[in-house]
Write a structure and sequence with these properties.
Elements lengths: L9 E12 L2 E12 L3 E5 L6 H8 L7 E6 L2 E2 L7 H6 L1 E4 L11 H11 L5 H14 L15 H13 L5 E5 L7 H16 L3 E5 L3 H7 L2 E6 L2 E6 L1 H6 L4 H8 L4
Parallel strand pairs: 3-8, 3-9, 6-7, 7-8
Antiparallel strand pairs: 1-2, 1-4, 4-5, 9-10
The structure holds adenosine-5'-diphosphate and magnesium ion.
The site of magnesium ion has 4 residues, from α1.
Length: 251
């Protein structure tokens, strides 16, 4: 594969990231660096802080301490325009959050027109390209409620890509799907990986992590407790905690 990962300048980096909700310290000093073109799978038990970590990375949550660097700039600096930063990071959630009253095509053109000020014809052209890429060209006039979960999630991926993000953040993109739909979403994600997209993927799909990730990061109780390329991560999971966790996950 022609994937090139730049070791020189991280695309996205968390330094000493901490976050608490009231008394509960959810992130306890996270250091995580993602290089341009790198795919990082983030795994760990429920409640360990994975979603909070992703939400801090794109400033949906404000960290209490630490810094986030993105494309060479410190984005936790209060001067930074949060909306500009978010535009450069595509986020795909467990639940698709599509607009139910808009067609699939319109879901994918909306932010291009409103935020990027892309002319409609051009936004539609890009939307059609992306819908065809995720296998949904035929559904452009459909409304989200008529789609399966897997189709909705593929629309959500196309919608995020429409903004030409520098990095894609996925938060358990397949865990709300019926099993038969998981694969079609993982396939769409795998294509992005092959194209060299920089990605952070919170997932329980160990097959995907093994195949597609350059690195697997294990989060437990707000800390990164293990981190390694997948071959090494899965073969000699060197902490009891990681072994226990993997033993509970099918596949
Ligand atoms: N907005 C919030 N307010 C209060 N507690 C929260 C909030 N978001 C997450 N938490 C708590 O933080 C912990 C980590 O949550 P989360 O990041 O969602 O974990 P994960 O994604 O690994 O399951 C959980 O105990 C959760 O209840
Ligand atoms: Mg979560």
């Amino acid at each position: 594969m022609e994937r090139s990962v730049s070791a020189v300048q991280p695309m996205l980096q968390a330094r000493g990231l901490s976050k608490r909700f009231g008394e509960h310290e959810v992130l306890k000093g996270i250091d995580l660096s993602i290089a341009r073109g790198e795919v990082v799978a983030i795994i760990g038990p429920s409640g360990s802080g994975k979603s909070t970590l992703l939400r801090c990375l794109n400033l949906l949550e404000r960290p209490d301490a630490g810094e986030i660097w993105f494309e060479g700039a410190c984005i936790t600096d209060p001067q930074v325009d949060v909306n500009r930063v978010r535009m450069r990071m595509g986020m795909v959630f467990q639940l698709f959050n599509l607009f139910p009253h808009l067609t699939v095509l319109h879901n994918v053109t909306l932010a291009q027109e409103r935020v990027l000020r892309t002319p409609r014809a051009q936004a539609q052209e890009r939307a059609r390209e992306l819908l065809s890429k995720v296998g949904l060209a035929a559904k452009e006039q459909a409304y989200p409620n008529s789609l399966s979960g897997g189709q909705k999630q593929r629309v959500a991926i196309a919608r995020a890509l429409a903004m030409k993000p520098a990095v894609m953040l996925f938060d358990e993109p397949t865990s709300a799907l019926d099993p038969e739909m998981v694969q079609e979403v993982l396939t769409a994600m795998g294509e992005l990986v092959d194209e060299g997209m920089t990605m952070a993927v919170v997932t329980h799909e160990m097959g995907f992590a093994r195949r597609a990730a350059d690195r697997v990061v294990f989060v437990d109780e707000g800390r990164i407790v293990a981190e390694a390329p997948p071959e090494r991560f899965f073969s000699d999971a060197n902490s009891d905690r990681v072994r226990q966790f993997l033993a509970k996950i099918p596949g």
